[in-house]
Amino acid sequence: MTQPILAVDGVGRTFGGFVALEGVTTAFMPGKVTSIIGPNGAGKSTFFNILSGALAPSRGSIHFKGRNLTGTKQHAFVHLGIARSYQITSIFPELSVHENVRVAAQAGRSRYNIWTHRDRLRDLAEKADAALDAVGLSGKRAEAARLLAHGQQRSLEIAIALVSDPEVLLLDEPTAGMGPEETKEMVALLEKLAAERTILLVEHKMKMILGLSDRILVLHHGRLIADGTPRDIQTDAEVRRVYLGQNDGYA
Ligand SMILES: Nc1ncnc2c1ncn2[C@@H]1O[C@H](COP(=O)(O)OP(=O)(O)OP(=O)(O)O)[C@@H](O)[C@H]1O
Ligand SMILES: [Mg+2]
After folding, report:
1. Which residue from 61, 67, 210, 212 has the least number of CB within 10 angstroms?
2. Are both 141 and 152 inside the same structural domain?
3. What gap in Å lies between CA 99 and CA 142, rounded to an integer?
4. pTM confidence score
5. Which listed ligand is nearest to 219 at the C-alpha?
6. Per residue in 164-209, pLDDT tens?
7. From the CA of 247, how far away is ligand 2's center (Å)?
């Protein structure tokens, strides 16, 4: 049987006395698209922050290909092949599109000698170009990032995550703030990326999730309340009660 690429065992997170995530145990198989859904404040981003090493769990453990990553820094996650994008657009608006990706590529490298090796700088620039090509932004490489349309900025963030060539890509609401056209383009991009890597997605747009996902996890008040195929989730009574019934995008 194939081994999970990423797994968590009893991970929880508290903020002060508030429990944002409560004892989640699950595993992700390589090459699959898994979506994490749930009402606002359910703990989705907190879960993502833990899975990507941005936030340490208050309890529980995280394993990547069987290796225990609990307590290691986020750059160690990136080095091993886990990268993510953020719910809020987080690019450098004044830098060019290409510079945004190149800076990320540079940040992923070890510090020593980086400035003195021309080959390495060329290598970083080429990696940035490849990532921009993968998200369809090559034509915009010289433009200031702030001049891009919203959907293109979200694609740029994916390019930034892709530059480390991750095996696992976590995307926190990549279609946030997008209209139907931009969403359609993002779905096409995600389908393309899914052919080559494991994708974890937080999203609110139900139609999109049902079409794209191999598997859906549902969080509610920090607890995992359902885990199954899109079909399982659509027919799950508790999920319908806490989430689907009140989600406009579902109709
Ligand atoms: N750094 C923090 N300090 C204190 N509370 C936090 C922190 N981060 C998250 N929380 C709280 O934890 C809960 C879960 O937040 P989280 O951002 O994970 O939810 P979410 O499911 O991503 O919601 P949304 O759909 O609105 O993005 C919320 O009540 C939030 O206010
Ligand atoms: Mg969130």
Report:
1. 67
2. yes
3. 8
4. 0.91
5. 1
6. 899 999 999 999 999 999 999 999 999 999 999 999 999 999 999 9
7. 15
